[in-house]
Every structure is written in C-alpha cells, then in structure tokens.
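Pipeline run #58 for the internal structure catalog. This entry was flagged by the ingest filter as a single-chain record with no existing model, so it goes straight to prediction. Upstream metadata was stripped on purpose; only the residue string is passed forward. Reviewer on rotation: M.T. Logging verbosity set to normal.
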Amino acid sequence: MIRLRRTIGGRSSSSRMGFTLIELLVVIAIIAVLIGLLLPAVQKVREAAARAQCANNLKQMGLAIHNYNGVYNSLPPSRVGPQHATWFVVILPYMEQNNLYAQWNLANNYYEQSPAVQNALVKQYLCPTRRNSAMPSTQYEISSTGIPDTQLHPGTQGDYACNGGQYANSPIVDNPLCRGAMCSANSQVNNSDQVTFTTSQTRLNDITDGTSNTFLLGEKHSVLARWGQSGMWGEGSIWNGDYPRNFARIAGPTLWNLGQGPNDATGPFHCKFGSWHPGICQFVFADGHVVALANSTSIPTLQILAVRNDGLVAPDY
C-alpha cells in the first residue's frame, strides 16, 4: 500500500518545526531575569516571617518573666550565681518546658549538670534569621575555677540576652552595680560550690523609669567569625552562668551601640545588643511590648532605655 504525503511549498507536512538555538537562549535568559526579579521578593518575605517569629519569641519570654514575677514577686536574676543557672533556666516552667526544668539541679553549677541538659534545645531561644537549630558552643566552656573539672563542656547557644544596664565598672557585664532590669542574684555558695541561698536583686517596682521605657530582653549581637566561642566572645552556652556575656548585654556610653550585623566586630562587640535582621534590633520592654529599634539608634538613647532608674526621658525612637 502506498501512503501519499501532502506537500506544502515543497515541504512534507509531517515534518516538525523546532526551536532554534537562539530562541532557546532567549527563553533561558527570560527565565533567568524572572528568577532574578523574584528572588529578592522571596527573601524579603522570608525575612519578614523570621522577624515576626523573633518578635514572638521575645513576647513569649517577656510573658514568661511576668509570670515568674507573679509567683516570686521579683524578676528572674540574670544568673542564680557564678557558674550556675541563668535566667534562661529559671523561666523554663513558664515556657512550657517543665520536663527540661525538672532535669536541672539548681544547687549544682552548670558543669555538674548532665550533657543532655547542657545541650538541650528550646526553639524560642533561637532567632530564625540567625539559626534554626541548636548549635553547641565549641570553645572555652571550661570552669573558671576548675570545679568540678577542667574538661570542655559544650552547651547550647542562643540569640537573646537580658538587660544588664549600662557600663558601671569591671566586669562590664552583669556587674554588682547593675542598673538594668535583670542583674545577678544575691546568692550564697558553700565550699562545694553549691548554691545554698539565692534571691533576685530586682522587681518590677524597681523599674522606676517605667516598664514601657526600659528594656527587659533584646537580641544578642553575634559575630559570625566567633560563633561557638565562649569566654570573652559571648557565644557560649546560654545555660552557663560562668560567662555573663553569653546571657546578658549592656547598652550606652561610651562604646555600647547596637551591633551592625553578622560581620560587625568593632568595639566590644561581645557586650552589645544586636541582630542579623537588616537594619534593626528587636527588644521586649518590661511592660511586655516589643519594639524594633533602628541600628542607628543613638548611644545616649540606648543608655536611657537600658537603665531602669536614671529618671531620664528617652526621645522618640
């Protein structure tokens, strides 16, 4: 059987027309341009969601601190005692973390807690712009007194810090003269380094400048090149009261402005508040409201907001 093909202009009608190389390259170029236009928008949406989650974390921690205050008629101490539990630990029952809190022995120092406790993760203690999973400290989590040993004890990092006020004297963070909202507890420790007595130094009533005008907590400035490094770098375990820079920060003259992002290693960066959100750093105030301050906020304004009892009125921020 013979099949006849119809021809049009000398070309078989059964032949197919394909893309030329030039047409294919044009299509690829258009797709690349569209991706280039969409990617910044996607990144902005993602950062907006991360910023909102971070603000919610601060809100939840602020609420937990208020609940703690309702029970004990005092704000949580920044740390129970040198080398002992930090405020991150003592508010655990009010963060729906009773099981983790029950694993702590508050009389013992951090280095005597179990590795499971030292490396425990509480998602609300992480800023999603900076990290989404637990990252243990890598250096210097060694007891400053050698009790109970001189071994390395890595522990979970976090992205927030309590307000230790403004620089007063050495040591510059969590000083006994602290005028922030949350300071080191008045505590007694026996010869075995066990806490036998502890009481907070501050109550909401001690924030005489007004709870709506004083930081409670803020985002902790973190330098990417120093991630995981404790001691003077302030990137060690948030559970460990041995190194105040891990869990407390200060603000104000002369050098304590807000960190300017992950690569800002200027000045005493390990003592500052700061975030990886573009252009801003978020704080929860002592009345529970959350504010995003511009990274350009002046140092004098930061001092007024950090000190709980200086009688000064902050300008618009």
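catalog note: Residues 1-9 have pLDDT under 50 and may be disordered.
catalog note: The two ends are 90 Å apart (CA to CA).
status: ready for reviewer M.T.
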